[in-house]
Amino acid sequence: MEASFTSQKTYIDEFSPVEYFNMYYDSEQGKLPEWTDFVLQTLHEVFSSGGVEGDTIIDIGSGPTIYQLLSACEGFNKIIVSDFLEQNLAELQKWLKKEPGKFDWTSYIKHVCELEGNRVSWDEKAEKLRSKVKEVLRCDVLKKNPFEPLTLAPVDCVISCLCLEVACKDMDSFYNALTNLKDFIKPGGHLLLLSMLNSRYYAIGNTFFSTLPITKEGLEKALKDAGYEIVEIKYAAQNYQSNVEIFTGDTHYYVKARKPI
Ligand SMILES: C[S@@+](CC[C@H](N)C(=O)[O-])C[C@H]1O[C@@H](n2cnc3c(N)ncnc32)[C@H](O)[C@@H]1O
């Protein structure tokens, strides 16, 4: 199965947050998907070991999900979430405002509370995250100013999960996106990227969405060419298998990169 590059129109028309939840974030009897295990463990280690903290963090391509911010909310006063799609921003607002039909993230929140030594109850943790999300913004990471027409001041940290390979058609576009994001990071601030290597597509319902099949070498070169210092990088084999191939990709990755002072 090869998916040709997915247009922004297809995203607008076909990306269903509810189907996305059902396919990738349904936690059967509390067992979390392999991807989120990787992300939650990694981000717990990043944020509990110090060094990545400050006033503001921006999540780029948040989609309709909040799991990626559960540890980050300990290290920052203000969180900005963002996505290209209005339907994803609406889903985020539903969770933030505790509206009927919001996705149930309880097992994810409990898991992070356990990683953090159960210092607070899971509902206190959820409230803490809600209280830190100050803005929900539309963004397009392919634009020189992804938040156009807004102009945002540079922040201490940018995080992005499973977004750049989805948005970018080729390595030039990936490099440009990294460069665009760098403009939003203060000198000495960090970029945290978590995603998948060698992925060609993922499905939501019956629609296949393309992804850029990035390699370790391509990833590290693009970061360096875009002017980041790679502080930490981790690769982990992706072992999930199912009868129907709903996504491809063989390796989860995490990068902590720094914008030089
Ligand atoms: C696979 S989802 C990942 C969502 C979420 N971060 C997660 O970890 O599940 C990819 C997300 O990238 C967003 N996206 C696609 N193109 C984009 C663009 N040009 N700028 C910003 N976000 C984009 C999509 O709307 C979608 O929410």
Write out key terms for the chains shown.
single chain, 261 residues, alpha/beta, Rossmann fold, 7-stranded mixed β-sheet, two-stranded antiparallel sheet, 9 helices, 34% helix, binds S-adenosylmethionine
CATH architecture: 3-Layer(aba) Sandwich
Structural class: alpha/beta
- Domains, number: 1
**Sheet bearing the most strands, described?**
7 strands, mixed
Give a brief outline of the structure.
With 261 residues, the chain is an alpha/beta fold. The chain has nine helices and nine strands.
Model description:
- The protein has 261 residues and is an alpha/beta fold.
- The protein has one domain (8-258): Vaccinia Virus protein VP39 (Rossmann fold), CATH 3.40.50.
- It is built from nine helices and nine strands.
- It has helices spanning 8-14, 17-24, 34-48, 86-96, 106-115, 122-132, 164-167, 171-182, 216-225; strands at residues 54-60, 76-83, 133-138, 155-161, 185-197, 201-204, 207-210, 229-237, 251-258.
- Strands 3-2-1-4-5-9-8 form a seven-stranded mixed β-sheet, sandwiched between helices. A two-stranded antiparallel ribbon has the order 6-7.
- A hairpin with a 2-residue loop joins strand 6 (201-204) and strand 7 (207-210).
- Helix 8 (171-182) crosses helix 9.
- The protein starts with 7 loop residues before the first helix and ends with a strand.
